[in-house]
Amino acid sequence: MAEDGTVSKGRIFYDATRNLATDKGVPDGLKVDRAGNIYASGPGGIWIFNSAGTVLGKIRLSELVSNCALSHDEKTLYITADMYLLRIKLRK
Question: What is the mean pLDDT of residues 34-55?
Fold first, then answer.
C-alpha cells in the first residue's frame, strides 16, 4: 500500500482457476499464521501457502469450504464447510 492508501505494485498471489474444473469450491476466507503461512479456502478444501505464494499442501475436503480460523496458539485449525464446523490439530 502506498502512503496515500492506494494499492501499488499489485500482483496475483495465486490463480486457482484451473482447479475449478476438477474440484468444487472457490477461494474465499483465509488466515495467516505468525510464520507468514496462509491457510485459505479454495477448490477442494483448504490450501496452505508460504508467504511467496508456493503451495505447501492441501487439506482435501468433500464439502464446500468457506472459511478457516487458527486457535490462539496456532495448534488447531477450525474450518467451516457447508453445514459443518471442523477442527484439525496441526503439527508445528
Answer: 97
